TrEMBL record:
Protein name: Chromosome segregation DNA-binding protein
SMART domains (UniProt xref): ParB
CC per GO annotation: chromosome
Species in which this protein is naturally found: Ectopseudomonas mendocina (Pseudomonas mendocina)
Keywords on record: DNA-binding
InterPro entries: Chromosome_partition/occlusion (IPR050336), ParB/Sulfiredoxin_sf (IPR036086), ParB_N (IPR003115)
One function term, GO molecular function aspect: DNA binding
Length: 251
């Protein structure tokens, strides 16, 4: 990241602050009360963009079965009195599957379609990203459960979980080696690092693309895998090898 990038970020921050001050918007205080409703009576909205695959839906059910529902379902009231889900459709489905006859609900009242859609988007998005090292350390905290327990209840697969664990291991090894080197330099001695943990050979990387592009990329990767015999490792590694072949061959 160069100085120009930092300048652009500073300008953007100043612009946002200026716009907020210029609008002089009052703070919005929504007094919310939690009520309890039968999940079977809650109507899904027709625009929810959040899609959960069957495996992660089962993990959500396992999480709710183990720890209960931690976030209320957000709904609005329609003209006919029906409660329509704004946020929490998959929690609702999980609760129904588990046999819940009551779930915690926050009712936003008779709000417009536009406001409901906006709140659905807000409910589905995060405003930050995980710090990989801190996330790895949190995953390895023995008090929150074993790797098997995390896999059973979190929307993460075995490869991703292994990647976070190996990242933490690699960070610790680097720190330990640096510390050893510093100590040995003071003593004027050399050390053998041959007995340290093996070097990481792979890393999980992630991208966000459109659904249409994702389908095209998946088909292309499958073709490259088949054409070039990338079949010996696990599916994620085979896909990665095919993608590298596609991007770097003849470049």
């Amino acid at each position: 990241m160069n100085d120009n990038t930092f300048d652009e970020l500073d300008e953007l921050e100043s612009l946002l602050e200026s716009e907020l001050q210029a609008k002089d918007l009052p703070l919005v205080h929504n007094e919310m009360e939690v009520q309890y409703e039968d999940p079977a009576t809650l109507k899904p909205n027709p625009w929810n963009p959040n899609v959960v695959d069957p495996i992660n839906q089962l993990k959500l059910e396992a999480s709710i079965q183990k720890d209960g529902i931690k976030r209320p379902i957000v709904v609005r009231t329609l003209e006919d009195g029906t409660l329509e889900i704004i946020g929490g459709q998959h929690r609702t489905l999980a609760a129904m599957s588990l046999g819940y006859d009551k779930v915690p609900v926050i009712n936003r009242g008779l709000i417009s379609d536009a406001q409901a859609k906006k709140e659905t988007l807000i409910d589905n998005f995060r405003y930050g990203n995980d710090d990989v090292l801190r996330f790895s350390e949190l995953l390895q905290d023995p008090e929150i459960g074993s790797a098997e327990e995390l896999l059973a209840t979190m929307p993460i697969d075995e490869e991703e979980l292994a990647g976070y664990f190996s990242h933490l291991t690699a960070e610790n090894v680097d720190v330990e080696i640096d510390s050893i080197l510093d100590d040995e330099e003071e003593k004027g001695e050399t050390i053998d690092l041959g007995a340290t943990q093996p070097t990481r050979t792979h890393q999980i990387i992630r991208f966000r693309v459109s659904v249409e592009d994702a389908a095209k990329i998946n088909e292309l990767v499958k073709k490259v895998r088949a054409d070039n015999g990338y079949t010996e490792a696990d599916d994620m590694t085979n896909d990665g090898d095919a993608l590298v072949h596609l991007l770097l061959t003849d470049h």
